[in-house]
Write a structure and sequence with these properties.
Helix content is about 35%, strand content about 20%. It is an alpha/beta fold. α3 packs parallel to α4.
Length: about 220
């Protein structure tokens, strides 16, 4: 089955429409972060999420780590999915789901070493999906996504094989390496930002190349 595609770092209604036109089934909307590209205000995220058809998943990328703050963040933006990019205490997933039962929860796992596999499998039972990225939450300035770096796909493959929930693969994907990523990792979905951008703007030529690459 062809993987779903999430285009991240959407910065405007125009970019959202362009991503959907080329075949994106999910859009990533980046809220306040300590680092990385594509950050927009909560007001801009709300304006975009309001015009997206229900069949398209809208992900707010939140760096909040407390359940009540994540819930409040969602209420300001009204996306249908919350992507948690930092580490949270496991009991908080249940708190969020109790308050927002219709909203999907996706936890980012920053794939660093073998311990990332254990982390992913432990968390998988509490969320609706995992997203494997190349950040480093332990860096002096936290990297919580948007690095444009490829991580160790051997580790990602092990997570996909053991996870009880769908897994998205992110980190340095583009038209040139995406087929190798699909063949090696077999993810449910693909997530990319810089790989379809030129000078930080969504590039229709790169979008076309990317979607053509996964249609072969």
């Amino acid at each position: 089955m062809k993987p779903r595609v999430k285009i991240c770092c959407i910065s405007s209604i125009e970019e959202a429409r362009m991503a959907m036109q080329f075949g994106a089934s999910a859009l990533g909307l980046v809220a306040n972060m300590p680092s990385g590209p594509g950050i927009i205000s909560d007001e801009e995220i709300l304006a975009i999420s309001k015009i997206i058809p229900p069949a398209i998943a809208t992900f707010i990328l939140t760096s909040e780590t407390l359940a009540n703050e994540i819930i409040l963040h969602h209420q300001r933006t009204l996306t249908n999915t919350i992507q948690i990019v930092d580490t949270v205490k496991e009991g908080m997933y249940a708190q969020i789901k109790a308050s927002l039962p219709a909203i999907k929860l996706v936890q980012v796992i920053h794939v660093i070493d073998e311990s990332s596999i254990d982390e992913a499998i432990r968390i998988a039972h509490s969320v609706d999906a995992l997203l494997l990225d190349s950040g480093n939450p332990n860096a002096a300035v936290k990297e919580l996504g948007g690095t444009g770096r490829v991580h160790n796909w051997t580790l990602s493959k092990k997570i996909v094989e053991q996870s009880k929930v769908p897994v998205f693969l992110a980190g340095g994907l583009n038209a040139d390496n995406v087929q190798q990523a699909i063949d090696q990792v077999q993810p449910f979905g693909l997530d990319l930002c810089s790989g379809v951008r030129t000078d930080k703007k969504l590039d229709p030529y790169k979008l076309e190349q990317f979607f053509n690459a996964i249609s072969k």
